[in-house]
Design a protein that fits this description.
globular; 18 helices
Length: 438
């Protein structure tokens, strides 16, 4: 649970890594961190140690793999993005089922310490998945890269000449009129010096120049990535200046807690209604998880139809989910509960549409930072939702009120979604008036 909470809460900072290193390197580093977290957890002797190794290290590593995967799908696919996101995110559902069964088997056969060690080795496959995230570069950018590389080679040659100048004379020429003559003499001296056995010194100088060039390129990359990340959060082009995006973030703060609550209270509701025998055959939480996988794919297919808006599908799924949460406490039979849980799982498939909606709001350039904020808001919601539901039960001694109150809070978030078209129209009017004045 700590790992699942740490992953979304660190997503805004993972956007910084994507801006600096790119999706491929970020995913590879995340795979290594995730594997290290699992392996170090095998040597745990207390809960605090596990909090640092499994909760923090493995959680950050999994987040550094998940966010680049979402961003890369948005870069690869433009026509059928919703279906692509739905298919890519179904791996989390299938992986949860398969890895749970695998970990149970490994713990039974080898013990929990060896099971964590083996799981760490399996997690290294995330590095292979990250290596497959090849960035797409258009022809224009490749031509720019060729011109840039030629200029960098020329700069390197100039640096090598200057280094040889310093090496042969010990000082630089201060008279600009004698630069060409001194350069020619120094080149001849350096050639004679290499012929007489000075190749090792020139090789060391070139090696030092390569290191200097690598460090300078790394510094420029870090500065550009940090500038893009900083401008997305705090600069003039901050994402928070987009009022439509702010409304979307407010919705995310209320959404995920309502989806988590059924998983927490359903087992107790089953005991309260004496449905344990039926629930043991096919648990209600498993119905939500299985239908959730198919919901992602089906909603993605529906959203890709030309005549259907992704935003309308997203809103409809949200309304269906909040209706199911509000009506779940009214069901007392297993069949009715199973139907409502299936609808909850299907409608919650809108999670696969969140990257598509976010990209439509902010564009592909800011998708990593924007989606990181959305995931962080969902993480805060998931972190505060279960304790809030437990506090309501302690006061009322009924599970029904937890569903009602969380559903009403979810409705507040949906209201902000409904305000988004009005905000967009207002922004377009303000923009048109400004252009008219200019």
């Amino acid at each position: 649970m700590k790992s699942e909470c740490c992953q979304p809460l660190t997503s805004p900072f993972i956007g910084l890594f994507i801006s600096m290193c790119g999706c491929r390197k970020t995913a590879i580093i995340g795979g290594i961190l995730n594997a290290i977290g699992w392996i170090l957890s095998a040597y745990a002797s207390n809960v605090h140690y596990l909090f640092l190794t499994f909760g923090v290290t493995a959680g950050i590593g999994s987040g550094m793999v998940y966010l680049p995967a979402v961003v890369m799908v948005g870069q690869y696919f433009q026509k059928r993005r919703a279906l692509a996101q739905g298919l890519s995110t179904t791996g989390t559902g299938f992986g949860a089922f398969l890895m749970t069964a695998l970990l149970k088997y490994l713990c039974t056969e080898f013990g929990w310490r060896n099971a964590m060690f083996i799981q760490g080795a399996i997690s290294l496959n995330l590095c292979v998945c990250g290596a497959l995230m090849r960035p797409l570069s258009p022809k224009g950018s490749s031509e720019k890269y060729i011109v840039r590389s030629n200029s960098e080679d020329n700069q390197a040659k100039a640096l090598s000449h200057s280094a040889k100048t310093i090496k042969s004379n010990g000082v630089l020429s201060e008279e600009p009129e004698k630069k060409e003559e001194s350069t020619n003499e120094e080149v001849l001296d350096s050639v004679q010096h290499t012929e007489t056995g000075g190749r090792s010194r020139s090789g060391r100088n070139m090696y030092g120049l390569r290191i200097l060039k690598t460090v300078s390129q790394l510094t420029v990359t870090v500065r550009k990535g940090f500038a893009l990340w900083y401008s997305s959060y705090f600069g003039a082009a901050s994402l928070f200046t987009n009022r439509v995006f702010v409304a979307f973030v407010i919705w995310a703060l209320f959404a995920y807690s309502s989806f988590v609550i059924p998983f927490i209270h359903l087992p107790e509701i089953v005991k309260q209604y004496n449905l344990s025998s039926q629930n043991n055959i096919f648990p209600l939480t498993s119905i939500i998880a299985i239908v959730h996988i198919f919901g992602k794919v089906i909603l993605g297919i529906i959203s890709d139809f030309p005549c259907i808006s992704t935003w309308n599908v997203f809103l409809t799924a949200n309304f269906t989910l909040v209706t199911c949460i509000l009506t779940l406490p009214l069901m007392h039979a297993y069949i009715s509960l199973a139907v409502v849980c299936a609808l909850i799982g299907f409608s919650s498939g809108y999670f696969s549409l969140m990257p598509v909606v976010t990209e439509d709001l902010v564009g592909t350039k800011h998708l990593a930072n924007a989606y990181g904020i959305i995931i962080c808001a969902n993480g805060i919601s998931a972190l505060l939702g279960p304790p809030f539901a437990g506090w309501i039960y302690d006061i009322t001694q009924k599970y029904d009120f937890s569903f009602y109150i969380s559903g009403l809070l979810y409705m507040v978030g949906i209201i902000f979604l409904l305000l988004q078209p009005c905000i967009q129209k207002r922004q377009l009017r303000e923009k048109s008036t400004e252009e008219a004045q200019v």
